[in-house]
Amino acid sequence: MTTNTVLLLILSIVIAACLSYFQYLFKAKSQSKVYWLLAFLRFASIFGILLLLINPIISRTELEIIKTPLPIVVDNSSSISFLKANKKAQEVYEELISNKDLQNKFEIQPFLFDATLQPSDTFNFRGTQTQLDVVAKDLKSLNKNIHFPTVLVTDGNQTSGDDYVYSFDSENAVFPIVLGDTTAVFDLKISQLNVNKYAFYKNKFPVEVFVQYSGKRLSTANFSISEGNNTILKQLVNFTAGQRTTTFTVFLPADKMGLHLFKATISSGKKEKNSYNNVKNFAVEVLDQKTVVGLVSAVNHPDLSAFKRAIETNAQRKVSIIKPQEIKSLSDYNVLILYQPNASFKSIFDGAKTAGLNTLVVTGMTTDFNFLNQQQNDLDFKVTNQKEDFLPSFNTKFNLFALDNIGFDNFPPLAHPFGTITAKENVTVLLSSKIRSIDTGLPLLAFTETGGKRAAYLLGENSWKWRLQSHVDQQSFEKYDVFIDKTIQFLASNSSKKSLVVTHENFYNSGEAIAITAQFFNKNYEFDDNARLTISVTNVKNKQTKNYDLLKGTNAYQVNLDGLSAGSYTFIVKELNTKTSYSGRFEILDFDIEKQFVAPDYTKLVQLAEQTKGKVFLPSQVNQLIQKLLADESYKAIEKENVIKSPLIDWIWLLILIAICLSTEWFVRKYHGLL
């Protein structure tokens, strides 16, 4: 309390005493006890009010004992119950949490973890994911700048996240208590299976398989892939004495369109403790990539045959070479290649615009450029009758679709009239042109996309020589044919905008987040944040339907369908204001990653303990762990002195005392007739 405050308090006492003396004792006829009582009550009231006005700060010192935190973290994932260690985990936790000596020395912090870390003292062992690195990060955040030990009750099996061995702070000891039987048992499993989600009809798609075993010696195992009751593939998998893991790739035929569910199985004649991890389900959707290409030309040229051969190397492509006047209906084609167009192409250009067909325009020495300038707004041609040879130069920044440089720099030149070609907006150049070694800055192969319509321009004839040169360089037409196929694929894709766009996977694994997002656009294709979207999900097998609302996020609406059981589902997303709808389906595969483990990862937990200067214990060694924690002198409680400053105006009792004094004074005066 400052000197000025003390002087003000003394002055307040004097003022209160003087006022109470003057009001009750100075002119009183008799100084009876009643007057002295009233004077005291008035003194207390005035002094209390003056105290509130001065509002002195009262300081007091308190001693606080800060104990070292002791997080006791219990693995709540379903792998604990699968390993039949849930009862033991509960017993270990109870023994630690109830120890009085630990309570006296540490601030015990009970946690559970699976995909996240949560404060809790009850466990159900139903977590579908195990992420131990999250435990490390969250404990660091909760106990910053503190040296503390951690007791980790777990089987050490992690299903996602970073390597937890190096996620924990090396300065804070971790003491893992290993749950589950550490005895090595024979177990054969498919540890990983890589496959693309989509395949094209009448092609073959690869499946990469990782198989491993533990325990007893094994020389061969039987691997198979089946769809329903049909076995598609069978083969032997060979192991050696020093090789417990093997990787191989198999190819499956995509001979039927739609979503296909497959089951990969690995087995041997030996009995296993856990056969769940011998099977892995996966799904592939086979897409129909069939495209009919109309190759329209009024002239005969070797380029036509080269285009047809290159495009039809993909079994899903068919090319029809036709003259402009022979076309009866453009609806028969998905893509048009307009080779050196002239005035006879007028009806084809008009029909393509009406039908929304994408086009590849190839120009050359017989092209009518005045007519072409009238039919499109992507390129402006100002050319002469002089012939020039243009060499290709690959643009490494091209990003409309993935394409490697297949050796364009070695390709022969294309013939084209000399002049200037000006590219307008939305034109992306894949190949620019050179005359000998001089870059012209003019496009040679360019792509555009405007208003949902796509087009490509190849500015030169004699591209058949490119295909031959590619074969000379690569001993195969494959790279050139893939280049042409990707060009046709770009043109065959429908990029038109829809008012309701729904994004979802065709299949999910059990336990994964099942999220479906949707965007709704108004007539100007602007995101409508006032849309009302609902989704109806139906189980194909039992026909049960559930309805949900999609919740609005930043740029999309989303719904999480977590908790659905394995099986096939159809769904309909509806926008209630406009009645717009989208129908789809997805499959939930029966796959529980927590059931893939047959034993605890003892080796990994030992590495963690060594990395953090801790020690691994078994459930039967809990007492040893307790004694080690109690004996460690580095975990001492800290005595902290806290100075607490309280303003007097915060004392509610002072206000109550003033009110009591004023009330008592009034009643005394009333009783004695002094009012």
TrEMBL record:
Transmembrane regions listed in the UniProt entry: 6-22, 34-54, 651-668
UniProtKB keywords: Membrane, Transmembrane, Transmembrane helix
InterPro entries noted in UniProt: Class_I_gatase-like
Domain of life: Bacteria
Gene3D superfamilies, sorted: 3.40.50.880
Keyword check for Cell wall biogenesis/degradation: no
Tagged with keyword Membrane: yes
PANTHER family: BLL2462 PROTEIN
Protein name (record): VWA domain-containing protein
Native species: Flavobacterium polysaccharolyticum
